[in-house]
């Protein structure tokens, strides 16, 4: 009996400690207590850059759609504006101590941003967003502590969100799928930075990320112009696809360069990664990557790596040696993925090719 009473007292104490702070109206109701996952979801609101990234991505997609004369741009701008207002209201609610309302408003803001993304980019934009967080998770174990904070935890959460997003997409719910993927984007942005110094990226790392993104966009442009990808019957669709993703890559690169010039280094890294990914999407034609394209990417990565080894020579700098080693690991990982039948191996191969091309100069 004494043991049972002690257990009840401990559980009561835990319940009290788990409650938010009381106000003059008394203790908040139990349903205002957030779960661990909800607390993690809400944490991004403490960093405006992490909260705002969803709207910025929707804005970028809308701007690209408008520049190409695609429909939905006006609707996208309106939805993005509403999303931005909801995020501001969520931050105000969080500041006032109403965490449940803050969480609800943040979720609605993401849904609005997701609607904008679907309105201007369609399901293809949602798939690309899911693939982007999958690719980021796939290469997280090569990240240094001064690039991504707590990569193991982030990897697990991104994989969980990507799986949920794909399931929602399969159910014909692209907006819900995009909302889950956009939460992944927020978490990536939130965890960019050194361990125990979230959001604090060394300027040299940001400059390197932006430089590599620039190389990725240049490579993609040259490959598209040289028609280095296999031709298919739907030439018009292929050209539209490539133009859109090249425009997206260039816009993301411009955003990364602007952030770098303004001293916003974590932001610069985030959009540099997006430019890098969008450049790859421009190279891969609609309908998913083919076996021929996979072989071509593997050959490209290996050839550029061999050229980079020659260009660097026998006395590389510390940075050159580190990047060469990274490119080699990425090629090994990509080829292992392809041999296992996983087409996601194209992402590390592309990264290796970009790094090698940058080293060649």
Q: Ranges with pLDDT <50 over ≥5 residues?
A: 1-31, 228-235
**Radius of gyration of CA atoms, rounded to a whole number:** 22 Å
By DSSP, the count of extended strands is 2
Class inferred from helices and paired strands? mainly alpha
Number of helices: 13
Order of helices and strands: HHHHHHHEEHHHHHH
Q: Roughly what percent helix?
A: over 70%
The largest sheet, given as strand count, sense and whether it forms a barrel, is: 2 strands, antiparallel
Provide the β-strand percentage band: under 5%
Overall spatial form: globular
Query: Numbering strands along the chain, what is their spatial order in the largest sheet?
Result: 1-2
Output mean pLDDT: 82
Distance between the termini: 76 Å
List key phrases describing it.
single chain; mainly alpha; 13 helices; 2 strands; 76% helix; globular; disordered N terminus
What is the fold's blueprint, element by element?
Layout: H1 2-18, H2 36-43, H3 48-67, H4 73-95, H5 99-138, H6 151-170, H7 174-191, E1 193-194, E2 197-198, H8 203-225, H9 235-261, H10 265-283, H11 291-312, H12 318-339, H13 346-360
Antiparallel strand pairs: 1-2
Helix pairs in contact: 3-4, 3-5, 3-7, 3-9, 4-5, 5-6, 5-7, 6-7, 8-9, 8-10, 8-13, 9-10, 11-12, 11-13, 12-13
